[in-house]
Amino acid sequence: MQNVTPMLRQYLEIKKSYPGTILFFRLGDFYEMFQEDAIIGSRELQITLTARQKDTENPIPMCGVPHHAAAGYVARLVRKGYRVAICEQSEPAVKGTKLVKREVVRVISPGTAIDEQISDQGEPLFLASISVKNDIVGAAFLDLSTGEFFATQAEGADAWSTISGHFERFGPKEILVESEHQATAHKYLLLQEIRRADSPGELDPSVVLTSDSGSPFTAFDFSGSEALDNILTGHFGVLELSGFGLAGRDAAIAAAAMCLEYVKTTQRSAVKHITEIGYFETNEFLVLDGVTLSNLEVLKGRSEGKDRTLLSIIDEAITGMGSRLLRAWVLRPSIKRSEIQTRQSAVAELSDAILRAKLRHLLKGVSDLERLVGRLNLGTMSPRDLLALERSIAQAPEINAQLRDASSLLLQVLSENIFELPEIRDLISRSIADEPPAILADGGFIRKGFNAELDEFREIAGSVKAVIASFEDSERKRTGIPTLKVRFNNVFGYYIEVSKAQAHKAPEDYERRQTLTNAERYTTPQLKEWESKVLGAEEKIIALERDLLAEVIEKVRSETKRLQSTARALATLDALAALAETAARRNYVRPILHDGDEIEIVKSRHPVVEASLGDRFVPNDIYLNNSTDRLAIVTGANMGGKSTILRQIALIQILAQMGSFVPAMSARLPIVDRIWTRVGASDDLASGRSTFMVEMTETAAILHNATARSLVLLDEIGRGTSTFDGLSIAWAVAEYLHNSSDHSAKTVFATHYHELTELANELPGATNYQMAASERDGDVVFLHRLEKGQSSKSYGIAVAKLAGLPVSVIERAKEVLQRLEQYELAVFANEKATGVAAAGTRSAAAQVSLFAMSNERAIDEIRQTDIEALSLEESQALLRNIKGKIV
């Protein structure tokens, strides 16, 4: 760039240190963007693109946004996946200074965007990192807004798959990855596992590539010049990491250190609210992979509308932090019976409608305390945030009073961890005005009476302003100019304005300051004196208010640990009360958890479907174990409710292990380690995988990894290929799950292959069930009732009729079905009784029977043709056509 001004040179130097970001460069009352940043900003924010040095050969693209409205513009860019660096003046602009110093005070990225305009109150805001050490893959997850921090690692052939499963559950907005491992991370985590968009093959629009939009990864140069464990021990103030479970886990330590250094670098903060880190293993909670979460509609429904998910049905939380905790419990249900039952006992006690109503009313006065504490420690706390914090902890005394007589252990523990902090409440109420302005530069956020010096300056400024107002009246009388006005702006300060028509009346002691088209502006020695007093006092007021605010924030910050303890206790109380509210509203019962293997649910209901159907939902009984009832084969009508039964079993198990009551009349449940589902059809166009390939890949994962403690739910295995292939695969899969000593599991197998019901005669742990339906006058009635026994038909043609297929198609389908049924295509008869040769004969006969229909249709066509009327060419065409149809 030629003829670069000092200001632009400063911009370029700062921009060089922050590649991959859009630099918001503060100039006066605006944040300006230049060059490529301006082009992107103009396009994404739909603001005017202009230029500096327009008249030169190389004009510099430029656009800007007002500083007071910048938060909204930053939010829009971050939601689109961009990273924004905020550059402020780091010294006051005084006369004689040609160029003030500027520096970046914060980088806002998808994983560090703690501002309310960007983050969803009910969703966590996790930043993740990946590190690879000697083929061991480590990962860390940090929610900067709350200080939650977790780490893990995995090794072996399934290491990447294991880590990607954690990414599905934490749902990070941004992923840090060492450059040399970026391609591998992209392959395993992006293409295979963490799709969150509606359509297969698409990516969530909120994620960003290394420095471009399109991927969740941010390359972070992490040299590790300092010993990695020293980064963590130094931050947490400990001598070793064994207390956090990290000792010897180098990959997890590296990932955690990367996360911590990244947030310190981008936020220019010590992030002292990150007070601990927790190490976890996959086997510490009930595992729900991305396929299962999608199939069960745990977080996102398949149809339009947010209310069609499990989480939305049970989320009756009052606060954002309560909603986030419920989300965490749903995604990572416990496998510790004592922990689950402790939550259940608390929910049971909160079933007292009066107690619950009082607590939920008090919680309405609690803001998102977890994120307020985050802003407190990240230097973004405003006076309004302080008031929200004070109002929140002001609820603590009354909440503790309500919990004083609690009998459940968890409610007692929560009460002990809700600190009332009277000193902090008193400090904030004495120091902060009732209605502070949104912008600090406006002043007036410190309460009158809090500081004597500040009150004195305010009195001086106020009295002088009153004098100036009186001066205006006196000057109007003295000059005889009734339209004379005393005004103020940031450029000229106070001045006297007189219209052009009255300017000839201006006294000799008026000193001209500016000439306008329609007016003249003057000053006087007396007005200059008063102006210096007012401006001097106001400058001191603003500076003193900022200093006082900083002192208040520092005192509040010193109570970070007790504030965090209070926030987490209140979040837990809110989540438990929400579960109790759900149970009361929807008639859920407390499940009995045991150490055996039996699932016994009486009058079970699907929580999401029931919320839509209400009393019309038909409840069903379910019984499974690992011996006599380990394989339930469910047949029945299409649309009869087979998939609903599968999903409600899984959802009831999830609810139970997160500590919730469940939709049933009664339930006895074991603790399961993982829920596997294969429900519905989907393809993976991005990876070149067909619907059937996706189905087989998911089924393979289940067969290799399910254990005796797992719950397996399979729906219509084998339907993506030919009838015989699909039936063969379904048969073999069902046998494997029943017989395998290593991978046996309680399995519900819904299928439209009625031949599979023969398995119940061969396998001691297999039982046939059917979804009841009846046929009246050719129309099918779905009873949605699960009964023992096998269904003889799927009523597919009846469903096709309901869907509106043409009558001719329906009638023809009935004819084809009748012919197929005549040949009894049962290729899996008992081989021991009939012999292999006989089975082969029947298979061949069946194959012939399928084509016999085509031959018959060809004969019918000959019968209906008037041969005498055909020409030679028409006869030849007819023969060619018939020859093509004959087998």
Précis, in short:
This protein is α/β, with parallel strands linked by helices and 887 residues long. 44% of the residues lie in helices and 16% in strands. The strands form 5 sheets. Strands 3-4-2-1-5-6 form a 6-stranded mixed sheet, with helices on both faces. Strands 11-10-7-8-9-12 form a 6-stranded mixed sheet, with helices on both faces.
Properties at a glance:
6-stranded mixed sheet, 887 residues, alpha/beta
How would you state the average pLDDT, rounded? 84
N-end to C-end Cα span? 78 Å
What count of helical segments does DSSP give? Answer: 29
Poorly predicted regions are 190-215, 683-688, 825-851
User: Which structural class best describes the helix and strand composition?
Assistant: alpha/beta
Number of strands: 26
Tell me the radius of gyration.
36 Å
Helix content: 40-55%
Main β-sheet: number of strands, strand sense, barrel status? Answer: 6 strands, mixed
> Could you tell me the strand content as a percent range?
15-25%
Strand order of the largest sheet: 3-4-2-1-5-6
Task: Write up what this structure looks like.
- With 887 residues, the chain is an alpha/beta fold.
- It contains 29 helices and 26 strands.
- The strands form five sheets. A six-stranded mixed β-sheet has the order 3-4-2-1-5-6, with helices on both faces. Strands 11-10-7-8-9-12 form a six-stranded mixed β-sheet, sandwiched between helices. Strands 22-23-24-20-25-26 form a six-stranded mixed β-sheet, sandwiched between helices.
- Strand 1 (22-27) and strand 2 form a beta hairpin.
- Helix 6 packs across helix 7.
- The longest helix is centred in the middle third of the chain and has 33 residues, at 525-557.
- It is elongated.
